[in-house]
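Many introductory courses stop at the sequence. We go one step further.
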Amino acid sequence: MYITSGTSALLRRASHSSSSRTGKRVFSSLSKKPASPSPNSNSSHSVGNQQTRSLSYFSAARWSHGVDWKSPASLASQIRISSAFSDTLLHRKIATMASENAFKGIFTSLPKPGGGEFGKFYSLPALNDPRIDKLPYSIRILLESAIRNCDGFQVTKADVEKIIDWEKTSPNQVEIPFKPARVLLQDFTGVPVVVDLACMRNAMNKLGGDSDKINPLVPVDLVIDHSVQVDIARTENAVHENQKLEFERNKERFAFLKWGSNAFQNMLVVPPGSGIVHQVNLEYLARVVFNNEGLLYPDSVVGTDSHTTMIDGLGVAGWGVGGIEAEAAMLGQPMSMVLPGVVGFKLSGKLLDGVTATDLVLTVTQILRKHGVVGKFVEFYGAGVGEISLADRATIANMSPEYGATMGFFPVDKVTLQYLKLTGRSDETVSMIEAYLRANNMFVDYSEPQQERVYSSYLHLDLGDVVPCVSGPKRPHDRVPLKDMKDDWHSCLDSKVGFKGFAVPKETQEKVVKFLFKGEEPAELKHGSVVIAAITSCTNTSNPSVMLGAGLVAKKACELGLKVKPWVKTSLAPGSGVATKYLQESGLQKYLNEQGFNIVGYGCTTCIGNSGDLEKTVGDAITENDIVAAAVLSGNRNFEGRVHPLTRANYLASPPLVVAYAIAGTVNIDFDKEPIGVSKDGKDVYFRDIWPSNEEVAEVVQNNVLPEMFKSTYKAITTGNPVWNELAVAAEKLYSWDPTSTYIHEPPYFEGMTMDPPGPHGVKDAYCLLNFGNSITTDHISPAGSINRDSPAAKYLMERGVDSRQFNSYGSRRGNDEIMARGTFANIRILNKLLNGEVGPKTIHIPSGEKLTVFDAAMKYKSAGQDTIILAGDEYGSGSSRDWAAKGPMLLGVKAVIAKSFERIHRSNLVGMGIVPLCFKSGEDADTLGLTGHERYTIDLPSSVSDLRPGQDITVKTDTGKQFTCTVRFDTELAAKQ
């Protein structure tokens, strides 16, 4: 049997009800041996030729709410619950929910100013509880959800009391249920979610249940934005050519998603070429307040992309979760979560001239990483909040994963309402939003005296202290003030290999490599030469001030005669068509084009690793001479191997700085003292000569960012595009799997599943598959970028007739478990201590001493029936919220990860896939305990599921006689029973 705790538990719950609130979720992947990935699968898959309806919003049923599924769960238990439900009982339960709510006494009407009512809502002020007045706004959203969904079963009065008493209960790590209003997906993470749902339907059908019960019960929006690559750049037709290639590569994936939008209720798919998911969410999808057939409640969202937090800038509670949690939420299950502490972050003053929102967010990220906010909410308050735009707030909220918080929340205020009107929301909708939030004490008015709120801890930043900066070269929280950049770069060259080091010998640091670009034009590269300059990413491309600021830098540079060298791969990928409209309206796009920043597509592109190939002569010059080449991008992630395999130094910067560094051609420059270039009349040009003032930027924003741009852009989104509309898909509700497909493959999670879940099972005499240090990211574990031609995944594809030019990316192939298993730990920059300093996706097979790819070693262990574990340091699993970073290790046979600490989402994903997350005790790690990774490890778990509990200590024993105590990182009762 090849099932996981997460997937099998949801399936079981969907098949029969359980009397237990948390149910019997267990470690099924620890109890049975998973089958190895199959060697048999080929390419191409056709989903049929029937035409489908055009993209449009669904009817009121799309906003369905409140179905009483039994308990928070994972995939397999969902199926077990559903087959036991009768439709009659289910509908009867729904019909009586409102009358059964323990808080029906505070269910009241919200009147319209001119008569009538907006709808009805659960009034927090009507509770007359002074504790609520001191709650952070973010906690009030959790409270309202608990009250509205309080049915005495999924959500109880005791849960509501825990949230009201947040000041006393949150330090105790209490567990609460939360039901988000909707779910947000992008295609990289959305494809495996839809694959899981399709697989669940098949499994339900095989178990004799009603497969139609596998349907989203809350609105699900999926935006296709992660597939476009920068194959073509620096040309007027780049966007058209890249979109054409995007459809050619991903036709099968897109058809599958289009099938899903028809086969499943409540699912809207926004087609490719529309924009980046978080900007589309911000500008269009977000409701702020739902009006669901007369029931009013705050918008809230969980998404399978960690940067779902961007919507927190709009006052919508949203954060990233793993795919399994998202699927549970889609199927009506409340999420089990620890009631979080809230860090109050006070902002005062205002930004100085020349300082951007990107500089601000990189500063905030460094402060919060240092403070430690993993698992916490951060709520921004103070007079300084009123001084920054909504777009700036969204930029700060977007990088919550980089500073480690679950949310970076800005409560709704007048600035929020102005933004809603700017982006085309109707006056009546905005009026309803303001009336509801004011009536429920969820609105901030900075013109009025502020009620003192209580926070778990407090931070303060004077916006006047923020200076221009970048972050890098390998982590987003390694901030470097611009004035220190040259010194920091030389320090990185000198330092040993690490997050801030490349260990380049002194005698080679000034090496100059001369070559002929495209075999024709003389060119040269040095350490620090910029070869990729990308205006990209949801973090910045939704912000008119930095986008138009980049256009002003390009304009000033053009007027002075400066030009980006042709061997720098420049690109501009707006987050929505709105950005294109205001860049064109302002006349600044033509200057960006002159500098090579032509629009290449609408999607994540370089930030997700879809940067495309470097021109061959440039790539050869880098690899043949071991040049530490640089990329500068306006993104949020710069982990090793993510942006491009050949750029070892990757810096995050504002869009205007991206243009400036592209013109300079190097990161080895002091912008204060050294010229950025030479003007057409032979004079030195400095950074200050091309940098716009805040007033210049504000004026161009005011004159060129208009409501009609948003309305026309999103009206077009709902009609799709011609290529998408012509994509033919089958109408069947059950998906017809093609075993030869290399994109969409039926996963093995439910093979041989029975209605009775297995019990927990420990780990015995496991070998160490990998021994890591600190900050192993999900990009290291499950890369999203290009497939290396020497990798096991490439071998698999070539054996099935797929040419290397059609490999696409790992992210695009997440619907195929065979490829993703082979891509696990395939990052070319991964550092495994078992290799004694060698960098790359290999390991030592301990019994034989052979050096093998990680996949081949894992398969050798599995064929011998041997369990494996992973040793790691701090921040294991930081970065993107990709569930394949947990699914992949599970497929490789990993049973446990022992680390110093975990990032929140990845730890949850590990639990969901049946991999035990264990933390060393404080002050201990593999090194201090003398563990080399050559030992065998035995982990004794309780034999009964009832004995599993959050945070318990267990003993790990080795075959060398060493033993040590670890804490099991099940942070909720639900996780412990999973």
